[in-house]
Amino acid sequence: MTEYMPVISLVVLAIVVAVGFIKKVNLGFFSLGVAFILAIAGGLKASDVTKGFSSSMFVTLVGVTFLFGMASQNGTLDLFSKKIVALVGKRTVLIPVLMFALSAFISAIGPGHIAAGILMTTFAMYLAFEMKINPMVTALFAKLGANAGCASPLSLTGLLAKELSEPLGYSGFEAHLFLSTLLSGFVFTLVIYIGSKSYKVKADNPLKWSDIPKFNRDQKLTMAAIAVMVICCIGFKFDTGLFAFIMASVLILLGAADEKAAIKGIPWGTLVFICGVGALVSVIDKLGGINLVSDFLNGFIGPKTAVPIMAATSGILSWVSSTTGVVMPALFPIAHEVAVANSLSYVELIAAITATSFAAAISPLSTGGAIIMSSYSASKETTNEEMNNMFKTLFLLSVANVAINVLMSALGVFSLGGLFS
User: Fold this and answer.
1) With contact defined as beta carbons under 8 Å apart, do 143 and 102 qualify?
2) At the N or C end, where does the chain have fewer CB atoms within 10 A?
3) What do you get for the CA distance between the two ends of the chain, in Å?
4) CA-CA distance, 409 to 415, in Å (whole number)?
5) What percent helix, strand, coil does the chain show, rounded to 5?
6) For residue 418, what are the CA distances in angstroms to 104, 129, 173, 353?
């Protein structure tokens, strides 16, 4: 039976993804149980499963989400967003651009695409209804921004990419990955901006600077803590997760945030999802499943087709699963094998994988599209016909975004012209 374990392990992964898609269960917990059964069947030890559960990744993600949970809980992020929008004043034609830029910035400094996406998409939807402009397009700009900024060295995706790549022997690619994902998001945002004629937006801005309260003591301390973390982690290369705990501890001691509310705000399910699926993929790797896939891909792809094929694979997989929970843990090890076999840049491969996977994440089958639809229905009474039309529109936009990213991959855009090589 051992000789069939590579194939069995891949079939099991497909079943796990299918179960998660159909039953909407947390794949993290499910994956851990399945990983243990698979390990026993393949003659591995229980320790092989637990070793695959990255404790360093878990601590890092808890630290970052804990700190930014405080920033969300005490109103810092929400007030900061309102003040930036108020600065636009009567230049409302800048609102769509601002939604993308502000959402990308907030995502990049730490909260990541899920937290920033929920915050900014809801905010953008509220603002659009107040300004009587297209709410779905405005919210889409915000979600595209959250996805575009999420691969920074401080954000969940960037940290995950580092944790997945370092055991494979890769480091120092943080800026390349961040700029690739940012570029991908910007390109499609530009397409939507022109296609929706958002450059013609004219409306009254409901947010006036004089009506918005000043930052209070707690919010000023929170912004200072975030600024210190950004400077120390990017400028001095401190461990992001552990340093986030230091800043969070300072805020707790100074009484600047509600500790219990921030703990409840940590996306525990998401963190277990990421680490649990990572443990399953680790077991599959030990059983030879990853090598089997890479050998299969290497059998019909070459140096010129590897990047677009890997990009397309990530986009398709992202339509039915999570980028950070499934796509990255599953495809990064394969990218390493493909890169070695074809003398390609591993960093270009993972940049194409990550960017294209997030391009698909505006689909209503993914968290991003679901956030837009739920925000819309929460802001306005919506008929089934409207929801169906929105579902179809978002999915088609997701397909178009993936196609553009695959084309960019084929043209070598994600090599960034060798800027970081």
Assistant:
1) no
2) N
3) 44
4) 9
5) 80, 0, 20
6) 24, 44, 12, 18
Angle, helices 268-286/27-41, rounded to nearest 10 degrees: 20
Q: At residue 308, what are phi and psi to the nearest 5 degrees?
A: -65, -35
Measured distance CA(202)–CA(195) in Å, rounded: 16
Owner of token pair 């997760």: 241
Return the structure tokens found at 348. Answer: 């270009």
DSSP per-residue string spanning 351-362: HHHHHHHHHHTT
CA angle 366, 159, 124 (to 5 degrees): 45
Q: Which residue has the tokens 């909260």?
A: 111
**Look-up: residue for tokens 């320790």?**
47
φ, ψ for residue 398, nearest 5 deg = -65, -45
Question: Which residue type, as a one-letter code, is found at position 18?
Answer: A
> Measured in whole angstroms, how far is the alpha carbon of residue 229 from the centre of its chain?
20
- Show Cβ contacts of residue 140 under 8 Å, excluding neighbours closer than 6 positions: 192, 362, 372, 397
Give alpha helix (H) positions in 149-216.
156-165, 174-195
Contact 324, 281 (CB under 8 A): no
Using CA atoms, how far residue 176 sits from 218, 305, 306, 347, 408, in Å, is 35, 21, 19, 8, 15
Q: Are 77 and 103 in contact (CB under 8 A)?
A: no
For each of the chain's 421 residues, which pLDDT tens digit applies?
567 899 999 999 889 888 877 877 788 889 999 999 999 999 999 999 999 898 888 888 888 889 988 988 899 988 998 888 888 877 778 888 889 999 999 999 887 887 788 888 888 888 888 788 888 899 999 999 999 999 999 888 999 999 999 999 999 999 999 999 999 999 999 999 999 888 887 777 788 888 899 999 999 999 999 999 989 988 888 888 899 999 999 999 999 998 898 898 888 887 888 888 889 999 999 999 988 888 888 777 888 899 999 999 999 888 877 888 889 999 999 999 999 999 999 999 999 999 999 999 888 877 778 778 877 877 777 777 888 888 889 989 999 999 999 999 999 999 998 887 6
CA separation for the pair 414, 67 (Å, rounded): 32
Query: What letter represents residue 259's amino acid?
Result: E
